[in-house]
Structures are given as C-alpha cells and as structure tokens.
UniProtKB/TrEMBL annotation:
GO terms for biological process: maturation of LSU-rRNA from tricistronic rRNA transcript (SSU-rRNA, 5.8S rRNA, LSU-rRNA). The keyword DNA damage does not apply. GO terms for cellular component: cytosolic large ribosomal subunit. It comes from Rimicaris exoculata (Deep-sea hydrothermal vent shrimp). This is Ribosomal protein L7. Gene3D superfamilies: Ribosomal protein L30, ferredoxin-like fold domain. Keywords: Ribonucleoprotein, Ribosomal protein. Signal peptide: none annotated. GO terms for molecular function: RNA binding; structural constituent of ribosome.
Amino acid sequence: VKLNKATISMLRIAEPFIAWGYPSLRTVKELVYKRGFGKFQRRRLPLTDNTFIENILGKRDVVCVEDIIHEIYTVGKNFQPVTNFLWPFKLNNPTGGWRKKTTHYVEGGDFGNREEKINQLLLRMI
C-alpha cells in the first residue's frame, strides 16, 4: 500500500486487527517469488514466464519479475498497475504461531506497527 496521510489513518483504525510495517527488499523479493501470482482474464496464473508479464505490463516498461519487485519496493510510477496485476498474496499463519494476538506490538503482542521488524514475521509466514 502506498503510504500517505490517508492510508496511515486507515491503518490506525484497523490497527487492532492487522500487523504492518516497512518490508525490506529481500522480503518483498521472497514474497513475490514464492507467493506471487498474476491476474489475467479473472484467472490466477503463476509468475513463471517473463513473456506473460511483458505481454500485460510491457507498455509500462515492466517486463520481468525483477521489474515488478522494483516497482513494489520503490513505489515507482507504475506501482498502481503492477499491484492491480498481482493477485493478493495468501500467507500462512507464522511458524511457531502468534505470541499474543490480543495485545499491541509495543506491549509484547502481535498487532500494530512493527516498522522494520515486519520482515521477521513475514519470513515466518511465507
């Protein structure tokens, strides 16, 4: 999600139900490679072939999986078309389970703004 004043206020409202933060490039790369699927004619297709990506997003200079990762991580000019092309990521529960899902992260729980520590949680969920 592109981070601006409006999305921050929406995240604050939903904060008791979600964990959020700022992922690293490594985490975004693993997420796209392991859990990434593209949308084409309302179907979910794996991102295994760069020609598939080039046919759909080529006019926006996105021709491979690495370009998708770059647009997501840097929130580039083609961020919106790339995120619309991607199927929502399906994640598992974290290995080892949730610690305290009813309390905030700053109180030792699991939900809320984890900042850069979201990477540890995401790697357990991928």
